[in-house]
Amino acid sequence: MSIHKPSIVVTVFIILLVGLILVMNQEEQVDFNTEIKPILNKHCISCHGGVKKNGGFSVLFEEEAMAVTESGKPAIIPGNPQGSELISRLYEDDPEQKMPYHRPPLTKEEIKKLENWIKQGAKWGKHWAYNPVEKPKFPTNGKTFSKNIDGHFPNQVDAFVFQKLKENNLFPSPEEDKMRLIRRLSLDITGLPPSKELIAKWNNDQISYSDIVDELLSSNAYGENMASWWLDLARYADTKGYERDVSRTMWPYRDWVIRAFNADMPFDQFTIEQLAGDLLPNPSEDQLIATSFHRNTMNNDEGGTEDEEFRVAAVLDRVNTTYEVWQSTTMACVQCHSHPYDPIRHEEYFQSLAYFNNSRDEDTHDEEPKLRMYNTQDKSKIDQLRKWLVEISTDQEEKFYSDFLKFQEPKYHAHLCEDFYNGELIDTKWLGLWHNGSTYLKNINTINSDRLLLNYWADIDGTAMVIRNGGPDGEILSEFTINNTKGRVTRSIPFKPVNQRIDLYITAKNPSAKPQQSTSAIVWFAFIPSLPGNQDKLHDKMQDEFLKILNSSPLSLPIMIENPDYMFRKSYVFERGNWLLPREEVKPKTPEIFNSWNEEWPENRLGFAYWLTSKENPLTARTVVNRIWDQFFGRGLVNSLEDMGSQSDIPSHPELLDYLSWQLMYEYNWSIKSLIKEIVMSYTYRQSSVLTADLHQRDPENRWYARGPRFRLSAEKVRDQALSVTGLLSSKMYGKSVMPPQPEGIWQTVYSGESWVTSEGEDRYRRSIYTFLKRTSPYPSFMSFDASSREVCLSKRIVTNTPLQALVTLNDPVYFEAAKVLGRNMALQEEGDPKVIISKAYEDLMLVPISVTKRESLLNLYQAALNDQEIDNNSFELVADSKLDRSKWAAYTIVANALLNLDEFLTKP
Amino acid sequence: MKGLEKIAEELEKTRLENLTRRHFMLDCVSKVGSLALLPLLGSCGFGNSNETKGLNLSDRDLNPLSPLPPPSIPKAKSVIYLHMAGAPSQLELFDFKPELIKFHNQPCPESLIEGRKFAFIRGVPNLLGPQANFQQHGQSGAWVSDYLPHFSKVVDEVAFLKAVHTDQFNHGPAQLFMQTGSPRLGRPSLGSWVTYGLGTENQNLPGFVVLTSGGKTPDAGKSVWGSGFLPSVYQGVQCRSKGDPVLYLKDPDGVSRDLKKKIISTINEINQEEFERFGDPEILARINQYEMAYRMQIEVPEVMNINDEPEYIHELYGTKPGEEAFSNNCLLARKLVEKGVRFVQLYDWGWDSHGTDHSTALDLGFRNKCTEIDRPIAALILDLKQRGLLEDTLVVWGGEFGRTPMQENREGKTMGYKGRDHHVDAFTMWMAGGGIKNGSSFGQTDDFGFSGIEGRVSVHDIHATILHILGFDHEKFTYDFQGRPFRLTDVEGEIIKEILS
To answer: Is there a single domain that holds both residue A363 and residue A339?
Structure first.
């Protein structure tokens, strides 16, 4: 027996040893996306990637990583880490050979991971965000919390959140105080505090939480609030930007956005109409207005600027914005070189650009094409004309004329003129020929067009204009006289069409013009066929009407209109992103890494919009879900809202992101309201936002949502709330932007005679979304609260906390006026006890009862203000026949000023 | 120059004041000084765990402008940047070209302009000789024209860059490029980068102050001092000489300082209670910001008021009290830097000398502009020096591009006045103060002053150099945005070692 004993021990030992060796050898399967790509991005890609390919080696694309490098062999040999230079260079001693070059070395763990990955075959993977959204399974262990949360069965969102809480050893907070919760909900959904009626119903349990959510979502204020978010992405403003930054009419687009949100337009349709509404069959006026989304690009009027340069800048911006808004992709990186981190190639940028490169706009001063939004009278005249055209002509002709009346395209702009003799482009914009002057307008299509529509103005009479084919000796195609117009006109002039593309040679003679004086300023040329039906008795009348309507000045909105075939613009790869260095031509194509193209889609912006909103597209739904989530929680499920590429932050709750994305597309049919409802119905959203020191230490950024969201209100909400609680806020919606009071001397733009004219009446108190936004000089108090100047697309406003904000809410006359109104209401209370009055005012604002200590503080302030000798009585002028006690009013105003500045008031609870 | 003794006297006074100030700082100014607001919080920081509920917070959590040391030892602590918006002509000021006198009014050689674009020049323009007389000045023998007689006397404090080039020939984009490193909107300005990196010394004043003169803001608008993707707390704060020096600084009518103090202490008491209940450190930050706002309300009007400066100082700068003037702004720049402001940016508008009218003629309007800045700039350098501030302050002067050696012929027209078009190939900038090799000059242009032939430096090089002087490696000073690290100098920029001391 004694012989056996040791043998058992030995056997056990051997078994253990073998087991241990087995365990050690059986290393985990390495995942490229989560384990390898981050190492490559961190240590390698800046020298071996989209920007630089040192040693002929790049880890950006699989085929590049596996390809033969300058050393003559591949740096990665799958299955053979020892033979792979990628590994051996990490172990080098020679600093000139050692990688990363002259940078801190990789950790042992990182090297081990790379070795294992190569050993396991160096399998490449696709970044998670480029895989289509799949319906995720519900976690099961998340529900265990539910028993502990009295009465509230968590929804699906909570299942995912609770699972992560459990993993992180965290526990959800209790439910938020009832009244704080409704204030949070209302501020989040409508941007305003809840109405008194809603508060009463909720307080008396006459309405369920779910019904409150529905009621808020169906209020008009919802669309206004959502528009604040969307307009940052759309870089909406009321001016053109750049040096002169003059006003433009864009507000019909802003109103379209508000209406679309209120109508809960499905997000796919919302996308398609904004990107390509003009390309839909028989687009409605609204669908054309929607395309202004991409006319929010800036327009440069500065003298001496090249319109083509800024047209290209606008197109580049459209590409970058589209990818940021719908794909959380930093496409701007690819403008100059392949993406530094994500597998998108340099030429793919310009293939995307090709979709956007064929719109009619050309950075002209007038920002044509514009949708002419006629009044009802003119609309009915147009209807008559159309009816008549249908009777006497073809549908095609009817469409041509009604389109021309709608947006006056196609036309040639004066900036295309070249080879001036005794002539110039006035302020690099309009054609000005002097006496005996000439110019060329080249490569022009006049086929079948026997009328020239000329848009111009002239200050002198008697200029003889001649247009010839080809040059000074060419056939005369048109001859006419230009006289003083007293303003801009569009004139129809007989023209002899030529059946091929031609160069027009244009001359002007007017001996009465002073030397170097322009005889006229020509804005554009359009060549159209004359109105058909010249035998018809109505023809002349219709011709007249046509011109009259063309010469009217309706409200006009810049929109997108596609080039006709003969104006097609080719697209090229720009070397290093420089438009002056066009290289090989490219055709429209979407990047390979994303979803594939459906052959049925047209190869234009419309097809591109279909591609974006295809359920196969991996990023559109994830992007919108992430950003809507951020609106409620103050951080995205992927915290880098602008980027979901491989360099983006790791998603905190990837399954939740996919679940909501799936729901949005497949269950809610892209309804944003449904998405929001699911989010705010969750227990996660309804938690108390109290932060304990322990929780702060373990999750300072509330990444795991063990508490409710609490953060400072946006610029718009800060102002709207102050106006709302004091009853000043106007409920008027839509229309021209307004100018509430701002300090003197803010607008000082070069060359612009425009000024800030403070609005009168209720327009002083409109919601902030209607405030005029001048890009080079935005409304100053909004800027203090981190609003965007809307020059470029902005996915996330950084929330700051500065003394300048305190100065706004303490001293800005807008806020002090609000305080005075509130103070007046307090002073007019029947109740005489300031304690009661102060308590009530506090509760009206915060919706919760005041604590004794807070009340004492405010009461002290009230007494101090009452005893203050300096309060200027003039600013508290007595209203006739009022019981108002002036000194009380002043003192309560000071209390109100403090109330409107409390952190709890400026913060969503 | 008159009044050196008085300057010395003034200097001693300032030194004493600073000493006193430092004592205040040590004792925690808001408790000891007249500004005491709250017993519960002070400017000493929030280290006390009773006040912060044991949260582990950095100074920057509570105050994003709290000072930080740069990564390496700086040569200067603050910057005064004088930007002449519209782009002054180097050929009338610093870049003396005798050959241009010889070829005055001759057609420009086609080889120079072939295939090139100008903003307004069309066809073949004529060369235009310098419209000013040049002389060498100081020990360094720097050429300066008679348009700048006062500045000529301080050339030995200055390092010239004679061959700066840019790639933007329109004002808006070129100003953005010069101030943000990119001609497109959306990038943080130089001042924002610096304030982000270094914070600021004086918490009662903004860290990045902008002063404008010439009646207009720069062509590119307020984005030239915008914070781009950096938090907005780092954007330039425009201090104005009319109206509130800082927007909304003035108390509402009838609200006395005492009452304002009471209002803010009430707000902060309640906020402190709120913090104790909700534990959100943002509330502590807000308490801090309200205190700062109160202190700014006192200190900003004080520093922006030049009336109390002694007479000889007014004389030195040639101030115009009560007006929006470049001279006032130069004096303010000195006062601000003295008070611990990190970055002071001046814009003077009206330098776009095309020769389209009297005001843009090189020998008329332009000359007047030069007279307006000449004395104040010389005064600024002297004043900073006499106070011992120049060694810690970097002064930068320049426009957004230069002017053509050719006379402008707008759209081919003959012009009534002498003017020059925008020019990107070569122009002059200068720097002075901390870290700068004074009395030096780097770079040289060809005989017509058209292009740099030696020591060409780019806008990115200027930025790299400024950051270097402040203690930053411009390649490592980054901010993550849109999924990648951004730099002021993008992927370019080399330090101009030749002008460093």
So the answer is: yes
| Nearest-CA distance B280 → chain A (Å) | 6
Kindly determine whether residue B266 and residue A340, on different chains, have CB atoms separated by under 8 Å.
no
* Cβ <8 Å between B482 and A330: yes
Same-domain pairing of A348 and A439:
no
Residues of B in contact with A851 (CB under 8 A): 273
At B79, give phi and psi (nearest 5°).
-130, 135
From B214's Cα to the closest Cα of chain A, the distance in A is 11
Same domain, yes or no: A547 and A573: no
Percent of chain B at pLDDT exceeding 90: 66
- For residues A418 and A533, membership in a common domain is answered with yes
Identity of the residue in A810, A898, A906 whose CB atom sits nearest the CB atom of B293: A810
CB-count exposure of residue B22 (10 Å: 0-12, 13-18, 19+): exposed
Which structure tokens are listed for A431? 């054609």
For residues B90 and B420, give the distance between their C-alpha atoms in angstroms, rounded to a whole number.
11
- Residues of chain A found within 8 Å of residue B246, distances taken between Cβ atoms: 804, 807
Contact call for residues B491 and A46 (beta carbons, < 8 A): no
Residues in contact with A112: Cβ distance below 8 Å, sequence separation at least 6, in sequence order = none
Do residues A48 and A96 both lie within one domain?
A: yes
In a domain, A686, yes or no: no
* Neighboring chain A residues of B282 at a CB cutoff of 8 Å: 711-712, 801, 903, 907
Chain-chain contact of B122 with A812 (C-beta, under 8 angstroms): no
Q: Tell me if A174 is assigned to some domain.
A: no
Instruction: Give the CA angle between residues A115, A117, A118 to the nearest 5°.
Output: 65
Q: Is residue A663 part of a domain?
A: no
Tens-digit pLDDT profile for residues A639-681: 889 889 877 888 999 999 999 999 999 999 999 999 999 999 9
**Domains in chain A, number:** 4
H or E element in which residue B180 lies: helix B171-180
Report the SS3 class of residue B191: helix
Question: Among all residues of chain B, which has the CA nearest to that of A743?
Answer: B247
Closest CA in chain A for residue B219: A243
Summarised one tens digit per residue, pLDDT across range A754-799 is 889 999 999 999 999 999 999 888 999 998 898 988 988 888 887 8
A864 → closest Cβ in B243, B262, B275: B262
Task: Tell if the CB–CB gap between B119 and A710 is shorter than 8 Å.
Answer: no
CB crowding A801-834: b at 16 or more within 10 Å, else e: bbbbbbbbbbbbbbbbbbbbbbbbbbbeeeeeeb
Q: Are residues A422 and A523 in the same domain?
A: yes
Task: Tell me the count of A-B CB pairs closer than 8 A.
Answer: 267
Domain of residue A87, residue span? 32-125
- Give residue-wise pLDDT tens across range A212-262: 999 999 999 999 999 999 999 999 999 998 878 899 999 999 999 999 999
Please enumerate in sequence order all residues whose Cβ is within 8 A of that of A687, keeping only pairs 6 or more positions apart, or say none: A172, A173, A174, A175, A176, A705, A706, A707, A708
ipTM, 2 dp: 0.88
Please provide the size of chain B in residues.
Answer: 501
Do A281 and A352 reside in the same domain of the chain? yes
Check: pTM over 0.80? Answer yes or no: yes
Measured between beta carbons, the chain B residues lying within 8 angstroms of A894 are 255, 259, 263
How large is the greatest C-alpha to C-alpha distance in chain B, in angstroms?
81
Query: What distance in Å separates the CA atoms of residue B379 and residue A178, rounded to the nearest whole number?
Result: 65
Which of A125, A155, A186 lies at the terminal end of a domain, its last residue?
A125
| Interior angle at CA B292, CA B291 and CA B296, nearest 5 | 125
CATH code for position A449: 2.60.120.260
Contact B120 A808 (CB under 8 A): no
Same domain, A354 and A439: no
Q: What kind of fold does domain B78-242+323-360+374-477 have according to CATH? A: Alkaline Phosphatase, subunit A (3.40.720)
Span A438-484, pLDDT tens digits: 999 999 999 999 999 999 999 999 999 999 999 999 999 999 999 99
